[in-house]
């Protein structure tokens, strides 16, 4: 088959794969593949990503094979090989694209805008859209945030982003502010953590001096802006006076067509003591969530971190870290930073053996027992260990027990027989509990968040 025909076959195959694969998998790993030949019934592909060889073989072999066979009309095999020359060309092309984009987007006085960002907006330059890794866990939230950044107050106002700690809510929120400052420099942006807002409010309410003048200045600080970014709004809980101030600030901004973006670790309806008038305002725009990243997104995040510091790391190291740090982006980044820092200090390459030695994940897993998992689960759902081991069929108890069994299996890797012995149940009952939670997690985001919270609590306790 001539190379022109081979390339056309691959273009047609990509169309099939675009329909069969998640968009982030297609965009990250498939788009950059190039067809190299078709001989002896083996379709040869070249990749610019070293890790793509193993990752695609391991996770998407069947989809690629099926798509190729559909286009070719017969059974076939394929090979994927890393091409260093192609990778170098790809890297240079990407750098040219970034350079061109930067020139188009950078306003006339970037230094002035940078000074504004640091002194007025309270943003961290680290959090930008261009270094935010998009996966299925955050794709919708990212799209909504980027839409808001491009057209503040035109759509999704307010934008409410919720999810567990360390999943990227603050990154997305600050990326909005960062984008606006550099692309719409006339707009005033201000970012504030709710806890800092509360402390600032208390300070201005203290007796002495011109209290009224201080309060007026404080109010204008957050109302005389075009975009207000409020992080961790759940800290409003039970702070009556602060809720009152936020309510009037919200109304002032919204009535004047100013953009509001809010983050929280839970839905507005799940924040205790939040008044209905605030809850309904938080829900009147768009509410989006971020969930823990899947394996491929975690690998992409690690790859991105390695590229930022120009560190060459093999796929098996990324795989090891991604398999052992699954709860959130923050702990994933922390694990990577620990490994890279130790490698830099000791002046050695980052190998799988080195990463295992530094992170010592196996020893940490051994430290978490079935009993510890059961205790953490019981505490989270407000039941007792005695409830777990009893014959009670109470819905609350059985639901909590299902979660405890699932976590015990996932974290400790103990056999179902060992888990059954601890819970004083039959082996088949433990297997049922595990499979039930595993299936429910595919659609139940609240359950996913509960399990994530228990894992975090377990890690804090070890």
Gap from first CA to last CA: 59 Å
Q: What is the average per-residue confidence, as pLDDT, rounded to a whole number? A: 86
Total domain count: 4
- CATH homologous superfamily of the largest domain, by name? P-loop containing nucleotide triphosphate hydrolases
CATH class category label of the largest domain: Alpha Beta
In the CATH scheme, what's the topology name of the largest domain?
Rossmann fold
Going by helix content, strand content and strand pairing, the class is: alpha/beta
| Biggest sheet statistics | 5 strands, parallel
* Uncertain residue segments: 104-113
Count of helical stretches: 23
From the alpha-carbon coordinates, what is the Rg to the nearest angstrom?
Answer: 26 Å
Number of strands: 8
So, CATH architecture of the largest domain? 3-Layer(aba) Sandwich
Fraction of residues in β-strands: 5-15%
Order of strands, main sheet, comes to 5-6-7-4-8
- How much helix, percentage-wise, in residues? 55-70%
Shape: globular
Describe the structure in your own words.
With 462 residues, the protein is α/β, with parallel strands linked by helices. The chain folds into four domains: 3-88, 2-Layer Sandwich (GMP Synthetase, Chain A, domain 3); 109-289, Rossmann fold (3-Layer(aba) Sandwich); 295-359, Helicase, Ruva Protein, domain 3; 366-461, Chromosomal Replication Initiator Protein Dnaa, Chain: A (Orthogonal Bundle). The chain is 62% helix and 9% strand. It has a five-stranded parallel β-sheet with strand order 5-6-7-4-8, sandwiched between helices. The protein has a three-stranded mixed β-sheet with strand order 1-2-3. Helix 11 links the parallel strand 6 and strand 7 (259-264). Helix 20 (395-412) packs across helix 22. The radius of gyration is 26 Å and the shape is globular. The protein starts with a helix and ends with a helix. Residues 104-113 have low confidence and may be disordered.
């Amino acid at each position: 088959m001539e190379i022109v025909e081979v390339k056309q076959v691959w273009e047609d195959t990509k169309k099939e794969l675009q329909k069969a694969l998640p968009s982030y998998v297609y965009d990250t790993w498939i788009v950059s593949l190039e067809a190299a030949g078709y001989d002896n019934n083996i379709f040869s592909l070249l990749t610019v990503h070293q890790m793509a060889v193993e990752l695609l073989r391991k996770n998407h072999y069947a989809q690629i094979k099926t798509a190729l066979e559909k286009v070719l009309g017969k059974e076939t095999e394929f090979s994927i090989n890393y091409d260093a020359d192609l990778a170098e060309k790809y890297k240079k092309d990407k750098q040219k694209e970034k350079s061109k984009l930067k020139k188009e987007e950078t306003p006339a006085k970037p230094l002035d805008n940078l000074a504004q960002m640091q002194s007025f907006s309270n943003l961290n330059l680290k959090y930008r859209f261009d270094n935010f890794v998009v996966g299925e866990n955050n794709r919708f939230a990212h799209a909504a945030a980027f839409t808001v950044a491009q057209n503040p107050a035109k759509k999704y106002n307010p934008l409410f982003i919720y999810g567990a700690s360390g999943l990227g809510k603050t990154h997305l929120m600050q990326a909005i502010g960062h984008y606006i400052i550099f692309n719409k420099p006339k707009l005033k942006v201000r970012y504030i953590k709710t806890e800092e807002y509360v402390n600032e409010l208390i300070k201005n309410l203290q007796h002495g001096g011109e209290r009224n003048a201080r309060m007026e200045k404080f109010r204008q600080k957050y109302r005389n802006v075009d975009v207000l970014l409020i992080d961790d709004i759940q800290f409003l809980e039970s702070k009556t006076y602060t809720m009152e101030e936020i309510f009037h600030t919200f109304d002032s901004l919204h009535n004047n067509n100013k953009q509001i973006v809010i983050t929280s670790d839970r839905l507005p309806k799940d924040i205790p003591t939040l008044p209905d008038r605030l809850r309904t305002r938080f829900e009147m725009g768009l509410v989006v969530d971020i969930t823990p990243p899947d394996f491929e997104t975690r690998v992409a995040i690690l790859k991105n971190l390695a590229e930022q510091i120009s560190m060459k790391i093999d796929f098996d190291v990324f795989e090891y870290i991604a398999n052992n740090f699954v709860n959130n982006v923050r702990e994933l980044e922390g694990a990577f930073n620990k490994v890279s820092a130790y490698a830099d200090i000791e002046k050695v390459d980052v190998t799988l053996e080195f990463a295992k030695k530094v992170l010592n994940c196996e020893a940490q897993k051994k430290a978490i027992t079935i009993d510890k998992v059961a205790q953490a689960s019981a505490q989270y759902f407000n039941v007792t260990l005695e409830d777990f081991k009893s014959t009670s069929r109470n819905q609350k108890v059985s639901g909590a027990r299902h979660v405890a069994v699932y976590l015990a299996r996932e974290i400790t890797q103990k056999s179902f027989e060992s888990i059954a012995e601890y819970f004083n149940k039959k082996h088949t009952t433990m297997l049922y509990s595990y499979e039930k939670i595993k299936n429910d997690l595919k659609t139940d985001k609240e359950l996913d968040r509960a399990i994530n919270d228990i894992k975090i609590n377990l890690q804090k306790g070890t």
